[in-house]
Specification:
Elements (H helix, E strand, L loop, with lengths): L2 H9 L14 H18 L3 H7 E9 L3 E3 L2 H11 L4 E5 L5 E5 L3 E12 L10 E9 L5 E8 L2
Parallel strand pairs: 1-7
Antiparallel strand pairs: 1-2, 3-5, 4-5, 5-6, 6-7
Helix pairs in contact: 2-3
Protein name: DUF4440 domain-containing protein
Pfam families: DUF4440
InterPro entries: DUF4440, NTF2-like_dom_sf
Length: 149
């Protein structure tokens, strides 16, 4: 299955838990920890950690920004548009993890973004999908992101 077909398929998977791994499984715990690591770095403008977690061949699909495939461009955009301006929170219990045989995992769920430049705005949950590639026994990287707002 090509990358674009996989992404199209994943967009249509309802968030009802079909096929997801158990929340007490090692894979779920690993991906949940990676999600936390990435978004802790995102919320604190730790660009090095974010860059370390992105694959060199990253594909980042953003409903408003389009497709980005250059890792440094994504990091520059985060620095310019996110750092010290936006905070992400995961919607409790919304995270799902689905194994991808011989590749890695898909994480999907709901998250909210608080824009500190709009203090009266109420953040609304939006869907996200992150495809994690397992590089070796201990290293994972973000291969693809679908960010919907």
């Amino acid at each position: 299955m090509t990358s674009s077909r996989l992404i199209a398929f994943l967009l249509f998977i309802p968030f009802i838990g079909i096929g997801q791994v158990a929340k007490d499984s090692e894979l779920f715990k690993t991906i949940a920890a990676l999600d936390k690591q990435y978004f802790d770095a995102y919320n604190t403008c730790d660009l090095k950690t974010q860059a370390d977690l992105y694959a060199e061949d990253i594909k980042f699909y953003h409903d408003n920004g389009g497709l980005s495939t250059v890792k440094q461009d994504i990091i520059n955009s985060i620095e310019r548009n996110i750092c010290n301006k936006v905070t992400r929170t995961l919607v409790t219990e919304s995270l799902e993890v689905h194994a991808i045989k011989d590749f890695g995992a898909v994480a999907m769920g709901l998250h909210s973004f608080y824009n500190n430049q709009e203090p009266d705005a109420t953040p609304k949950p939006t869907k996200f999908i992150m495809i994690w590639r397992q590089v070796n026994a201990t290293k994972w990287e973000i291969a693809e992101v679908i960010s919907l707002h």
